[in-house]
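Incident review: delayed structure delivery

Summary: a single-chain prediction request sat in the queue longer than the usual turnaround. Root cause was a stuck worker, restarted by the on-call engineer. No data loss occurred. The affected request and its eventual output are reproduced below so the record is complete for anyone auditing the incident later.

Affected input:
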Amino acid sequence: MLYLLYTSDLPQAPNVTIGTFADDTVILTRHNEVLRASSRLQLYLNVLQRWLRTWKIKINESKSTYLTFTSHKDPSPQIYLNNAEIPSAATVKYLGLH
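Output delivered after worker restart:
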């Protein structure tokens, strides 16, 4: 409960959906173009990074991944948080589900 109160002012952004449960967080964005969706995600992560620094919250980048759903074969650009490369994955586990 304290974590939820502490993070209740998590930054919001247009075209970005955030889901939280306890200390698990998922950030969703979408666009018909992979580069646009990735750009939106990176812009949000930059804002989130400043918020995390302000509230002295540490993120374990090694437990973070991103997943791109697309019908195109366009590669997704690399995503970063705290200057650490977030690895792309073919599947992710969220709340115990793949």
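Verification: The two ends are 26 Å apart (CA to CA).
Action items: add queue-age alerting; document worker restart procedure.
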